Amino acid sequence: MIGTQLIDEYARAISDEKQAAVIDGSSKGTEHRYHVLHKDYQDPDALRKLAASIKDHTLHHLGDYLAKAEQALVARGAKVHFAATGEDARQTILSILQSHGVTRLTKSKSMAAEEIHLNPFLIENGVECLESDLGEFIIQLDNDEPSHIVKPIIHKNRREIARTFLREGIAADYNDDPETITRRARVHLRAKYMEAQAGITGANFVCADTGRLTLVTNEGNSRFGMAPVPVHIALVGIEKIIPREQDLAVFLNLLGRSATGQQLTVYTEFIHGPRSANQPDGPEHMHVVFMDNGRTDVLASNCKEILRCIRCGACQNVCPVYRQASGHAYRSTYGGPVGAVLSPLLFGDRFPELADLPKASSLCGACNEVCPVDIPIPDLLLRLRDKAHHAHIHSPAAIPMSPFGTLATSPSLWRTAMTMSKAMNHLPIQVAPIKPLQDWLGQRTLPESHGGDFRKWYKSRRKT
Ligand code: SF4
Fold first, then answer.
1. Nearest CA to ligand 1 atom 3
2. Cα first-last separation, the chain
3. Which contacts of 152-158 are long-range, i.e. CB under 8 A and separated by 24 or more positions?
4. Which residue's alpha carbon is nearest to atom 7 within ligand 1?
5. Residue 34 lies in a domain
6. Is residue 357 domain-shared with residue 436, that is, in the same domain?
7. Is the separation of the CB atoms in 231 and 287 below 8 Å?
8. Would 36 be classed as within a structural domain?
9. Is the C-beta atom of 372 inside 6 A of ligand 1?
10. Averaged over 428-441, what is the pLDDT?
11. Domain check: are 349 and 457 in the same one?
């Protein structure tokens, strides 16, 4: 089937200003990644193949490594919880907060928390929950959704942010100087850290051998969020496990470079349990919630390679479809190529319409080339397209390909069509026989037809 998809509608509706912001942010990300990776490594491919093999090994023994991590964390005084679904994770976190009497907390950026809409859930249940990552904070003020894994406000420019700060009373006057914006956010957030009673974070990696959680941020906000509070809760997808601390050398080097083109992300935190008796600060209580939420089903599927993902956003930056449509077009937490694979797998049961996402790709392969864990995204997209086809899930305005198949496999029909196609060059799109075909043609510039000139030329060559 070919057809127009919801993502086409988003791409058409996006404002010029928003699209310029997305293109600018994503192309800069791609350039920086390329330079820093090739400057520092003679063979970056070897590094990402190593990362892929470590991840594959871990996923193959995930149950064992999770048990090992749990044991190590408990030995260090943390409490470990397992949540089979997103709802289980939300309820677990709420009951932990209630048991500690928490009504105010700060949260650092966590895709797992985004995935289960933790913020609105906690607020609905009477817990004041403030995003401390600058981008997520602005998203929260605007009641918006993040549109990029690493740069959640890639779709906004500084003028919009300055207007938000003025509207929300974060700033007394309009000023769109980036440094001033950041300073104003800092002043506002610092006070909130001190008022909070708990901090929620995600984790980029959990080392099974020691139970150590590794968190990276560019703003140091997770560090601030944890330092003054008595309770720390980490919500972690079960695929974030890696076997040993020494494996961090591979992943941290790849993550910073792939995500933001930095040799390392600015702040790297290693959390090894709650505060011990001889430590002056840090949370006295640490809870780690390992969340499945569909991941074991993905592990059992023919797309399990997507669980290697370390959420760097490099595939989003390089994707021509993402650049045109922006992250919101993917209608779920994960946008871009990673989202086109992950979202239908994780959320497809509840939102069957996400099955059209794997079609939002030209299959150019750029996403696979930049992926630090060598995920064969185009192959996975094809497997998901096949799955959607067999489940008879089609785009809203899909056009069956079988007429084209008949045409392309009959030499006489093809010749006739080629002869007629020259006349089609000058016909308006509206003459296309069906509306979906009109829509499809309306979004594409087809090459000019030469009416089968190639065949004539080829025939004449064979005679000579
Ligand atoms: S799929 Fe690969 S490139 Fe995309 S976010 Fe995940 S790790 Fe990064």
1. 371
2. 41
3. 152/109, 154/21, 154/22, 154/25, 154/26, 154/326, 154/327, 155/18, 155/21, 155/22, 155/326, 155/327, 155/328, 156/18, 156/21, 157/17, 157/21
4. 309
5. no
6. no
7. yes
8. no
9. yes
10. 67
11. no
User: Best of 309, 317, 342, 361 to mutate for ligand 1, by most ligand atoms within 8 A of CB?
Assistant: 309
331 and 253 fall within a common domain: no
CB distance 112 to ligand 1 below 6 Å: no
Q: How many A from CA of 286 to the centre of ligand 1?
A: 29
Ligand 1 in contact with 312 (CB < 6 A)?
A: yes
Ligand 1 centroid to 51 CA: how many Å?
12
- Considering only CA atoms, which of 276, 233, 295, 292 is closest in space to residue 105? 233
For residues 302 and 383, the answer to whether their CB atoms sit within 8 Å is yes
Q: How confident is the model at residue 411 (pLDDT cuts 50, 70, 90)?
A: confident
Are 152 and 22 within 8 A, CB to CB? no
Nearest CA owner, ligand 1 atom 6? 309
Last residue of a domain, one of 293, 317, 333: 293
Q: Is the CB of 341 within 6 Å of ligand 1? A: no
**Contact yes or no for 77/277 (Cβ under 8 A):** no
| Ligand 1 atom having least distance to the Cα of 316 | 4
CB 314 less than 6 A from any atom of ligand 1: yes
In 350-398, which residue ranges form alpha helices assigned H by DSSP? 366-370, 377-390
Looking at the domain assignment, is residue 35 inside a domain? no
Band of residue 453 on the pLDDT scale cut at 50, 70, 90: confident
The amino acid occupying position 138 is: I
311 lines ligand 1 (CB under 6 A): yes
DSSP state of 326: -
| Closest to 381 (Cα-Cα) out of 436, 329, 344 | 344
Mutation pick for ligand 1 pocket among 310, 316, 317, 319 (CB with most ligand atoms within 8 Å) = 310
Q: Alpha helices of 175-247 — where are they, by DSSP H?
A: 178-195, 221-226
Ligand 1 centroid distance, CA of 264 (Å): 17
Can you give the residue range of the structural domain that contains 247?
41-293
Residue 112 falls inside a structural domain: yes
C-beta of 150 in contact with ligand 1 (< 6 A): no
| 359-407 tens-digit pLDDT | 989 899 999 999 999 999 999 999 999 998 887 776 655 566 777 788 8
Instruction: Establish whether residue 62 lines the binding site of ligand 1, counting it when its CB lies within 6 angstroms of any ligand atom.
Output: no
Total number of domains in the chain: 3
Q: Taking a C-beta distance cutoff of 8 angstroms, is the pair 136, 109 a contact?
A: yes
